[in-house]
Amino acid sequence: MSQRGQYLPDGLLLAYYGDDYTGSSAVMEVMTFAGLPAVMFLDVPTPDQLASFSGYRAIGIAGISRSQSPAWMEEHLPPIFHELAKLGAPVAHYKICSTFDSAPHVGSIGKAIELAAPILGGAWHPLVVGAPALARYQTFGNLFAVVAGEGHRLDRHPVMARHPVTPMDEADVLRHLARQTSKASGLVDFVSMKQGRADERLKALISDGAEVVALDVLDEETLAEAGRLMWEHRGERMLAIGSQGIEYALVAHWRKRGLISQEPPAVQASSVERMIAVSGSCSPITAGQIAYAEANGFAALQLNATRAVDAGEWQREIGRATELALRLLGEGKDPLVYTARGPDDPAVADLARAISSSGAHSGAVNDRIGDGLGRLLDATLRESRLKRAAIAGGDTSGHASLALGIYALTARAPIAPGSPLCLAHSEDPAHKELEITLKGGQVGTPDFFCAVKRGGAPGHNGGTRK
């Protein structure tokens, strides 16, 4: 191993678990485009799969814990954390959303910390959510996000304040976290950072028993300082919690110290004549992207999601949509198959009523929708031999990717922050050269789907989340 303080250690630098599929790809994106190769597995990798990425600097496992209960976490997360621990990376990262999506009953970040800390270790656990590249800013522990050029405190965010599952009514990240865990916490604020007192403050917090320490990030200076605090105080190993702000901060510090190149390697993908996109997102941002795509050559095709309450009816609906998608491709169009255009689409209320009247479990129906979109995508790709696709929606991305038989992704080119164009790794010959992007509901500017088609060229499409 190289000497600490002068060079980066040889081998693996980072191991991570992402609490949803779209957000997981964001870590891979930051590391890869900083010149540090990274891979994201869609499940715990086999030894052979892991061996095929020997020499990579970051290895991650995408998961679904953001949408799961504490009981589910207790059953499923510890085995994954033990697998991450075996990798021996100096930093292990539990990756969460940059809007801190969580609640005591679902996606509990506090519960995840309680389960991960004894396995992944560390004398303290940094919490970094802010990331200027994502227009996420934390000051005095309060999280802010920019939407359409306007900044919002998180509890007044136009989307997150009324999120249907995890509405954010508290912008102070440590106050929000305290609802989910009794672990002691503290804050290194940006004033301490800018006055050169961050180390003193961190040591005092640890001495007083703080286990989770939030680090303010509001500009490039505090970003690099957060990275320095993590890297220089990591000990033999450290569990960190946060958005891809963890990686942005580490990369900023490494660049400042001259440990990696100042300029990221130039990357760009080629444009394609045809592609297909599927969306299970109800975000207003995705709705705007669907409208933009439709106005610029994509053919929008809406599924009747109410049929997902019955497995047989949903199978027929997916078959119908698959035939239509193939017909559209034959006509020279790019199909974009979706379930709803934003939270106010009548389809959202129709689905809720259908679930209620049928007695079906909402989680099972949502899983069925994601799986169905994946099977539609799989069948269309096989028949058309297309090599580029996009999936919108966090839960949808997970189910659909698994339905495609993909076991890993590596980042190929930037599209929007948190949603790179990726190369799919699959043992199925039909998908071995597939390029795909997984998009969270709040990610990207209006031309997102068009940017995927053109490979991100000529520049990096802006984005907002994950």
UniProtKB/TrEMBL annotation:
Belongs to the four-carbon acid sugar kinase family. This is Four-carbon acid sugar kinase family protein. One of its GO terms (molecular function) is kinase activity. Residues 14-250 form the Four-carbon acid sugar kinase N-terminal domain. It holds the Pfam family SBD_N. Keywords: ATP-binding, Carbohydrate metabolism, Kinase, Nucleotide-binding, Transferase. Residues 277-449 form the Four-carbon acid sugar kinase nucleotide binding domain.
